[in-house]
Design a protein that fits this description.
The structure is a single chain. By secondary structure, this protein is an alpha+beta fold. The chain has a single domain, classed as Ribosomal Protein S5, domain 2 (2-Layer Sandwich), CATH 3.30.230. It has four helices and four strands; from the N terminus they run H-E-E-E-H-H-E-H. The chain has helices spanning 21-30, 67-84, 86-89, 110-128, and strands at 32-36, 39-46, 53-59, 95-102. A four-stranded mixed sheet has the order 1-2-4-3. The longest helix is centred in the C-terminal third of the chain and has 19 residues, at 110-128. The radius of gyration is 14 Å and the shape is globular. The two termini are 25 Å apart. It is an enzyme of class 3 (hydrolase). Keywords: Endonuclease, Hydrolase, Nuclease, RNA-binding, tRNA processing. One of its GO terms (molecular function) is ribonuclease P activity.
């Protein structure tokens, strides 16, 4: 899928998922970050890849001891990204790796996560187009 073409489908397929341990390590060491509490985005411009943006989500085990709660929050993060990724896909020609972190200590509602995700992606667009 080309970045210049508007995104028509709202999928979050296997190719779009960030799984490379080396790239995740590089994100933490070299990546830049943006924050809209309770979400934090760590991003890094990368070389050519099969999709413009690869993304991953994570939730702190320190804040959420129960795996069921961590997995629920990760599902909410992935879903809100999936629905709003067109904001980034349609506004950039470069390739990025994204890592979304949930920093809050309470279980969020989907509408809250989605509104914060929109703000975070708008902030990202503003930063890369400076």
């Amino acid at each position: 899928m080309e970045a210049t073409r508007p995104i028509e489908n709202f999928s979050f397929g296997k190719k779009e998922k960030l799984k490379s341990k080396t790239l995740i390590g590089q994100l933490f060491s070299e990546g830049r970050n943006l924050s809209v509490f309770p979400l934090k985005l760590i991003y890094l411009k990368v070389d050519k890849q099969e999709v413009p943006i690869k993304a991953a989500v994570t939730v702190s085990k320190k804040n959420f001891k129960n795996a069921v709660h961590r997995n629920r929050i990760k599902r909410l993060l992935r879903e809100s990204y999936r629905l709003n990724k067109g904001m980034v896909f349609n506004n950039t020609q470069e390739n990025f790796a994204f890592l979304f972190l949930y920093l809050g200590k309470e279980m969020p509602a989907f509408k809250d996560v989605e509104s914060k995700m929109k703000l975070l992606l708008e902030k990202f667009n503003a930063r890369i187009h400076e």
